[in-house]
Amino acid sequence: MTLKRKTMLGLLVLFLTAILSACGNSSNEGAASNDGSATVSVSGSTSVGPLAEKIAEKFKEKSNVKVEINQIGSSAGITNAINGVSEIGMSSRDLKEEEKASGLVETIIAYDGIVVVTHPSNKVKNLTMDQVKAIFTGEVTNWKELGGADMEIVVVSREDGSGSRDAFQEIVGYSSGELVRSAIIASGNGNIKTTVATNKHAVGFISFEYIDSSISTVDINGVEATANNVLQQEYSLSRPFLFVHKEDQITDAGKQFIDYILSPDGQAIVGETGAIPIK
Amino acid sequence: MPRQTVEIKKSNKRKYMLEKLSSRLFQFCALLSVISLLLIVGFVFYKGSLPFLVDGYSFFDFLFGVDWVPSEEKFGILPMIVASIYATIGALVIGVPIGLFTAIFLAEIAPKRAAKLISPAVQLLAGIPSVLYGVFGLALIVPFLQNQLNLVKGQSLIAVILVLAIMMLPTIVTVAETAIRAVPKTYREGSLALGASEIETIFKVVVPSAKSGIMAAIVLGLGRAIGETMAVILVAGNSLILPTSLTDSVRPLTTNIALEMGYAFGTHQEMLFATGIVLFSFILILNFVLAKISAKGGK
């Protein structure tokens, strides 16, 4: 009997420690490496993440500094940078006013273009920003109103919380609540592309790096979606990839990492991943 | 002599130690699943109840709200609850008759050779990873529906229902088949001796006798359908509307969690856990029903 009780007690203790450690983990994630020795903690956008991972790999070979990257979304990354949970935050959208007010230093490390895509058979090849807004908010529901064939428009969007969706909505000028309710929600750029490529009614938006012949791209205000037009600031559906940090929290290793990304070597990797180098 | 005794004692001691140790190990393993259950349930309920207990969101608005706009702090999951229920009922309507007839065919009618071919095929169907059902649905069922029914988009409630109906087949067939096979041979012989035909015997004698097993099969299939995520996410369209027709694209509870968990944090994430609580409650109710059915069957 006593033996049984002891076992139960042991299990209870095990159970409680498991719970406690599980609870503890979430709060100090990323901070564990903040001792400043040779680890840089970076967190934020899932759009910037893959790019940062690649550069971090090369950076480690060069300087033997380990960069820990957590892809948790732009807003969470910016918050982490403000609170000092992460040394550097990654963002795929511009900072909001209240975020700027907290004294963050922003570094643009690359640009990304977003392109409106349709089925290759769609005759609509140019849209104004207002038309894009009208489509995604459900004001315009038939392609013939935009100079296309007489068929219904099927809107495809990313899920709420996605950085690409945030950026797209912010630039085009509508909120999540205004998005047409019947919109198909696809997770990820690839999924949107497949959905649009297989449905002649569909319209969606994807990152530049996902463009291929299975879908047709749409010009905005007569400007084609190219990297050059983004750099010339003529193509308006673009967003910066930002690194944000606080001056009093960044270590030398962290500074070196930012410098490396801005160097010709770092920018070459940016180009390889499909984002647009800043130069 | 004494030396030998000591050695025997020693080896016995080791034996007892090993005995005790292994029984303790088995005990631990047995408790592990209980611990996992408690941990998962505890964590989901803890996280999911935070918005209502701490942040003051109304649980009623959560259950019966029709707007889900996390970035604007609107969390209503009624469209998803309705979508989940519709999809499950629809899948039952298609899947249960097919599954039941398959089970009857395998257990009662099919020649041994045919049964030997079909049975493994059905079981293999259960082993296909669910994401492949989704890909199959997206590549074949969605375009098929779009073309045949002349829809603007094939991602719809009916696509979800079709995929789920196929997915629940193996569960229904295997459990129902076992139940039918368990009906004593004397029942059939008695019925046939009284002059009933084979089909009459099946539907008037065998199936009613296997009723509780068949009900269990249906409930298990239902559980499979309501919890399915990966296959559904690809064919549902995930739109945030209250479904009013079979061709509307829908977002069931499971896909809402899977779709948004990757980016969610703070209240949004906790609301997804709350969605999990609702889903879990459905499964819990199903399990109670199942337990009731099996208890009845045992009488």
Please, could you describe this protein's structure?
The complex is a heterodimer of chains A (279) and B (299). With 279 residues, chain A is an alpha/beta fold. Chain A is 39% helix and 20% strand. In chain A, strands 1, 2, 3, 4, 5, 6, 7, 8, 9 and 10 form a 10-stranded mixed sheet that branches. The longest helix of chain A is centred in the first third of the chain and has 27 residues. Chain A starts with a helix and ends in a 7-residue tail after the last helix. Chain B is mainly α. Chain B has a two-stranded antiparallel sheet with strand order 1-2. In chain B, a hairpin with a 4-residue loop joins strand 1 and strand 2. Chain B starts with a helix and ends with a helix. The model of chain B has no long low-confidence stretch (mean pLDDT 90). The chains are: A alpha/beta (279), B mainly alpha (299). Chains A and B meet through helix 1 and strand 7 of A and helix 1, strand 1, helix 5 and helix 11 of B.
The neighbouring-strand order within the major sheet of chain B is 1-2
Rg of chain B (CA only): 25 Å
**Would you identify the CATH H-level superfamily of chain B?**
MetI-like
Reported by name, the CATH topology of chain B is MetI-like fold
- Enumerate how many helices of chain B there are, as a single number: 12
CATH architecture of chain B: Orthogonal Bundle
* Series of secondary-structure elements of chain A, N-terminal to C-terminal: HEHEHEHEEHEHEHEEHEHH
Query: Number of domains in the coordinates of chain B?
Result: 1
The number of helical runs of chain A is 10
> Helix/strand-derived class of chain B?
mainly alpha
Overall pLDDT score of chain B: 90
List the helices and strands and how they pair.
The complex is a heterodimer of chains A (279) and B (299).
Chain A: H1 2-28, E1 39-44, H2 49-63, E2 66-71, H3 74-83, E3 88-91, H4 97-100, E4 105-118, E5 126-127, H5 129-136, E6 154-157, H6 163-172, E7 184-185, H7 189-197, E8 202-207, E9 216-220, H8 227-231, E10 238-245, H9 252-262, H10 264-272
Parallel strand pairs in A: 1-2, 1-3, 5-9, 6-7, 6-8
Antiparallel strand pairs in A: 3-10, 4-8, 4-9, 4-10
Chain B: H1 2-53, H2 59-64, E1 68-69, E2 74-75, H3 78-109, H4 112-127, H5 130-148, H6 157-181, H7 185-193, H8 198-209, H9 211-227, H10 230-235, H11 253-261, H12 266-298
Antiparallel strand pairs in B: 1-2
Helix pairs in contact in B: 1-12, 3-6, 3-9, 4-6, 5-6, 6-9, 7-8, 9-12, 11-12
